[in-house]
Amino acid sequence: MEEDEAALRIISSNKPIENAVETKATLEDLFLDYFDEMGKKTVKYEIKKIIVKPVNRIVLFITTMIVIVFALLAVNDVSYIKNDGTTVHGYSAAKELTEKRTNGREI
């Protein structure tokens, strides 16, 4: 392997690409494969534990509402002055700034 190349190890039951080379699995491969599956199960289990209790549902709901309120306040505070001198506020200003940025035009 040359200096500017990278090696990619893929755990797969079949050849992912035609020129893939089969190698022996290492202890690290086993660890990553095992804990990838276990990690998904653990996250689902922890989320289920949180949602089962009514108090946690209430706290989660209140936290979500607070995040939404602060997000709306932040968007409403956006101002943008167009090239012609007119000022745009709130969601319209955020939308226009995003469009300019995604179109690659200078702000």
Number of strands: 2
Average pLDDT over all residues: 84
Range of helix content? 55-70%
Cα(first) to Cα(last) distance is 45 Å
Strand percentage: 5-15%
- Structural class category: mainly alpha
Uncertain runs with pLDDT below 50, 5 residues or more? none
Question: If you had to describe this structure to a student in words, what would you say it looks like?
Answer:
This protein has 107 residues and is mainly α. The protein has helices at 27-52, 54-76, 90-102; strands at residues 79-81, 87-89. The chain has a two-stranded antiparallel sheet with strand order 1-2. Strand 1 and strand 2 form a beta hairpin. It is flat and about 65 Å long.
Quickly describe the structure.
This protein is mostly helical. The chain has helices at residues 27-52, 54-76, 90-102; strands spanning 79-81, 87-89.
Which keywords apply here?
single chain, about 110 residues, two-stranded antiparallel sheet, flat
Topology:
Layout (H helix, E strand, L loop, with lengths): L26 H26 L1 H23 L2 E3 L5 E3 H13 L5
Antiparallel strand pairs: 1-2
